[in-house]
Amino acid sequence: MDLIFYHPTFDAAWWIDALEKALPGAKVREWRSGDNDPADYALVWHPPVEMLAGRKLRAVFALGAGVDSILSQLQANPEMLDASIPLFRLEDTGMGLQMQEYAVSQVLHWFRRFDDYQALKNERRWQPLAEYAREDFTVGIMGAGVLGAKVAESLLAWGFPLRCWSRSRKDWPGVRSFAGREELSAFLSQTRVLINLLPNTPETVGIINGSLLAQLQDNAYVLNLARGVHVNEEDLLAALNGGKLKGAMLDVYSREPLPADSPLWQHPRVAMTPHIAAVTRPPEAIAYISQTIARLQRGEAVAGGVDRVRGY
Ligand SMILES: NC(=O)C1=CN([C@@H]2O[C@H](COP(=O)(O)OP(=O)(O)OC[C@H]3O[C@@H](n4cnc5c(N)ncnc54)[C@H](O)[C@@H]3O)[C@@H](O)[C@H]2O)C=CC1
Ligand SMILES: O=C(O)C(=O)CO
User: Fold this and answer.
1) DSSP-H helix ranges across 190-281
2) Domain range spanning residue 11?
3) Domain D-isomer specific 2-hydroxyacid dehydrogenase NAD-binding, which positions (predicted)?
4) How, if at all, do strands 175-179 and 193-196 pair?
5) Number of the ligand 1 atom closest to the C-alpha atom of 149
6) Total count of domains within the chain
7) Looking at the structure, do residues 55 and 155 belong to the same domain, yes or no?
8) pLDDT for 248-302, tens place per residue?
9) How far is residue 150 CA from its own chain's centroid?
10) Same structural domain for residues 123 and 81?
11) Are 17 and 79 members of one domain?
């Protein structure tokens, strides 16, 4: 069994060694331009079209959770991957815990008014502020998938009122579920902290715009953990400057790296990280990929592949 590996930044030698240990008998090689030798499986992140085009693979594994970049490449180059070849992505594999850490720490930061205390500190002012009440701090999670579920679970443990919005209704204890465009306004109307964990699809691009932000509770907060293209950054800044939004924390941006002249850098109520909310954890990713390959090799059905038409 032959595997080809391509990642623009990962240490290929380390991955090849770990994969060969996890899949005894497998031969893993780093794919380089011009390599047209046969392979059974491909493990990729931002792969060149040439790597996959025309190959008879048993499956492709994306080395991350989001498959938007590979699907957009596929749309432009349909010959890149035959529709019969299953595409898998990383489902949690350690990213859920990272998203929990990020979301819990930021929601608590806003809830305990550490942003306000930081601003007071900058002015050398000693001033206790009124506490916020949990019942006024409903957290709304857009995108109730693998990562949204983990984030909901962790915030529930901290006692925040929780709601989620997704395509289909969820039956999660303690979480009010809203489904479909027709329930989006109702979802937003009681949301004080909006957490985005949607996939990037044609239906979700630009979804966090002025009209959506206007429907949130006053003094709302936005935490974008998914993709930059979900947020209209001009509208976000307008909502911050107009007083509708009290703060935003962004991990992802419409252009990455964020250009030096973006007004987001300087905004006092925007906190930022450089797309690190949840990174691929190699041991967990390799365990998932090797177990899935072993099942495919045994001819077992494997659920959870990417639906290319749906886009995630
Ligand atoms: N910032 C970072 O470091 C990372 C960001 N991500 C992003 O997080 C996203 C979510 O990951 P998972 O939870 O694993 O995805 P998932 O596929 O398990 O969940 C997606 C959820 O979004 C909902 N959804 C999709 N389209 C919708 C629509 N049009 N309207 C309403 N709901 C819709 C689905 O119903 C589902 O509940 C990834 O696609 C990726 O872009 C993932 C990992 C790291
Ligand atoms: O896995 C993903 O989709 C990521 O964004 C990793 O940073």
Assistant:
1) 210-214, 233-241
2) 2-91+280-298
3) 105-277
4) unpaired
5) 13
6) 2
7) no
8) 999 999 999 999 999 999 999 999 999 999 999 999 999 999 999 999 999 999 9
9) 12
10) no
11) yes
Nearest CA to 231 out of 244, 248, 216, 217 is that of 248
Read off the pLDDT of residues 56-100 as tens digits, 9 standing for 90 and up: 999 999 999 999 999 999 999 999 999 999 999 999 999 999 999
Query: Strand pairing partners for 27?
Result: 2
Ligand closest to CA 197: 1
Q: Are residues 52 and 176 in the same domain?
A: no
Asked if residue 104 and residue 50 are part of one domain, the reply reads no
Nearest CA among 233, 232, 142 for reference residue 181: 142
pTM of the model: 0.98
Identify whether residues 102 and 147 lie together within a single domain: yes
Cα(19) to ligand 1 centroid in Å equals 27
CA 307 – ligand 2 centroid, Å: 18
227 is catalytic: yes
**Active-site residue, from 89, 163, 192, 227:** 227
Q: Tell which one of 89, 147, 251 to mutate to probe ligand 1, the residue whose CB is within 8 A of the most ligand atoms.
A: 147
Is 275 in the active site? yes
192 and 204, same structural domain? yes
Same domain, 288 and 258: no
- Amino acid identity of residue 11, one-letter, is D
